């Protein structure tokens, strides 16, 4: 018979947790696709995305929550996937950088996301190692605040590190994204 504490732990880890071998089956939605995998309970969400799903666009820099390179969107919140266990994401919706562009059935890109277009136009990045993290952070931010000031943009992206650009081009890219997304919204309203 389980002790009360063992039962509580088991319950907190979800009904699919297997305490015997330290693995669990998780079900989640990644970039709009349902995914079910058995994972080690200690596997980080970042390693799960990169190693189990081959979504290597999520980059790993510091692996301890400082650089923001591993940022993904979890249920509409930008999170650092190196700090979250894959089992903690059970039942959630994840968007990675690979989920931004619109693709056809063969996975060919039909059109890139307005925020990607904006960064391209503004020449936002140099090596672009930091780009996925900045884009996912900015995307969540602009959904909450579609018309931010420059100061608000600076504040929002201040948790993401870039070792190449000095940040000005990235800020300009987010400002360009604000303009493009506003124009898209106006166009959508006219078409409706
Ligand atoms: S790799 Fe996750 S914050 Fe740096
Ligand atoms: S563009 Fe190189 S780290 Fe940001």
Written account of the structure:
This protein is α+β, with helices and mostly antiparallel strands and 192 residues long. The chain has two domains: 17-99, Beta-grasp domain (Ubiquitin-like (UB roll), Roll); 102-191, [2Fe-2S]-binding domain (DNA polymerase, domain 1, Orthogonal Bundle), CATH 1.10.150. The protein is 37% helix and 18% strand. The chain is built from six helices and eight strands, in the order H-E-E-E-H-E-E-E-E-E-H-H-H-H. It has helices spanning 4-12, 45-52, 114-121, 131-144, 150-157, 168-191, and strands at 17-18, 23-30, 33-40, 71-74, 77-80, 93-95, 102-103, 109-111. The strands form two sheets. Strands 1, 2, 3, 4, 5 and 6 form a six-stranded mixed β-sheet that branches. It has a two-stranded antiparallel ribbon with strand order 7-8. A hairpin with a 4-residue loop joins strand 1 and strand 2 (23-30). The termini are far apart. Residues 1-15 have low confidence and may be disordered. One FE2/S2 (inorganic) cluster binds at residues 125-130, 162-165.
The ordered H/E elements are: HEEEHEEEEEHHHH
- Uncertain stretches: 1-15
Q: Write out the CATH superfamily name of the largest domain.
A: [2Fe-2S]-binding domain
The coarse silhouette is globular
What distance separates the N and C termini? 61 Å
**So what's the CATH class of the largest domain?**
Mainly Alpha
Number of domains: 2
CATH architecture descriptor text of the largest domain: Orthogonal Bundle
User: How many strand elements?
Assistant: 8
Helix-strand makeup class: alpha+beta
Q: Quick check: average pLDDT?
A: 91
Bin the helical content. Answer: 25-40%
Give me the Rg, rounded.
19 Å
Summarize the main sheet: 6 strands, mixed
Strand content: 15-25%
Number of helices: 6
């Amino acid at each position: 018979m389980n002790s009360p504490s063992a039962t509580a732990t088991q319950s907190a880890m979800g009904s699919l947790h297997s305490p015997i071998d330290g693995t669990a089956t998780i079900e989640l939605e990644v970039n709009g696709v349902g995914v079910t995998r058995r994972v080690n309970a200690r596997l980080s969400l970042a390693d799960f995305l990169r190693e189990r799903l081959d979504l290597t666009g999520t980059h790993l820099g510091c692996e301890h929550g400082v650089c923001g390179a591993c940022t993904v969107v979890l249920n509409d919140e930008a999170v650092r996937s190196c700090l979250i266990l894959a089992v903690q994401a059970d039942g959630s919706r994840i968007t990675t950088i690979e989920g931004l562009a619109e693709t056809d059935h063969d996975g060919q890109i039909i059109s890139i996301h307005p925020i990607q277009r904006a960064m391209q136009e503004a020449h936002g990045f140099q090596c672009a190692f930091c780009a996925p993290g900045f884009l996912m952070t900015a995307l969540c931010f602009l959904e909450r605040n579609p018309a931010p000031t420059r100061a608000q943009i600076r504040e929002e992206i201040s948790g993401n590190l870039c070792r190449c650009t000095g940040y000005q081009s990235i800020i300009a890219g987010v400002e360009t994204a604000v303009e493009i997304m506003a124009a898209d919204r106006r166009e959508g309203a006219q078409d409706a």
